[in-house]
UniProtKB/TrEMBL annotation:
Keywords: Signal. Residues 1-20 form the signal peptide. InterPro entries: Ice-binding_C (IPR013424). NCBIfam families: PEP_CTERM. It comes from Janthinobacterium psychrotolerans. The keyword Cell inner membrane does not apply. It comes from the Bacteria. Residues 171-195 form the Ice-binding protein C-terminal domain. This is PEP-CTERM protein-sorting domain-containing protein/MYXO-CTERM domain-containing protein. The lineage of its organism: Bacteria, Pseudomonadati, Pseudomonadota, Betaproteobacteria, Burkholderiales.
């Protein structure tokens, strides 16, 4: 019984130590009135960095623009690649994303492919089909965990915006957390020995 209790307490400590810090990147800082959009070189929010393969290749449509999708979002120049990383270099996971048409030459739906680079090597990819509506739709990532970066490429005839990116990074346990775990396990072991001796 005591061994089970010890295992349960150790599991609770481990779970709290590895608890994820969840974030939704919503690009609200880019939302502005006006017709002309914002053109930027890079963008940072909540500890995540967005960079583009073209100098000043990132875009955000303003509220009166035909490309405005009802919320602030981040788009990019045609045929460029946008890359998402953590500012502190930590590994992260992607859970969800909202996508909307930005500027498309042709009507109709089109595919958008996201590629994640894993911390231990290798990649994972997932393709979503986006309609030509200037409103955001939600999509869910599968297997996009333990990433050091994620990237996506704009099309030539279709470009799109991203919004409400659900991301999380596993918290690094503080040294005090390990000390508390070891002290708790030691105390439980001492109590078990004392009980067995009685």
């Amino acid at each position: 019984m005591t061994i089970l209790r010890t295992a349960a307490i150790a599991a609770m400590f481990a779970a709290s130590a590895a608890q994820a810090q969840q974030t939704v990147i919503n690009f609200n800082a880019l939302e502005q009135p006006g017709i002309l959009g914002t053109v930027i070189d890079s963008y940072s929010e909540a500890g995540y960095n967005f960079d583009n393969s073209l100098w000043y290749g990132l875009h955000s449509a303003h509220q009166d623009s035909f490309a405005y999708a009802g919320s602030a979002g981040l788009g990019a120049t045609a045929l460029t690649t946008t890359t998402l990383t953590r500012a502190d270099g930590a590994a992260f996971s992607l859970d969800k994303i909202s996508l909307a048409d930005y500027v498309s030459v042709l009507p109709g739906s089109y595919d958008v492919t996201f590629v994640g680079t894993k911390a231990g090597g290798g990649t994972v990819s997932q393709t979503f089909t986006v309609g030509d509506s200037h409103s955001f739709s939600d999509y869910t990532f599968t297997g996009f965990s333990n990433l050091v970066s994620a990237s996506w490429k704009e099309g030539l005839l279709h470009t799109y915006q991203v919004d409400n990116i659900g991301a999380n990074v596993s918290a690094v346990p503080e040294p005090g957390t390990y000390a508390m775990l070891l002290a708790g396990l030691g105390l439980l072991g001492f109590m078990r020995r004392r009980r067995n001796a009685a």
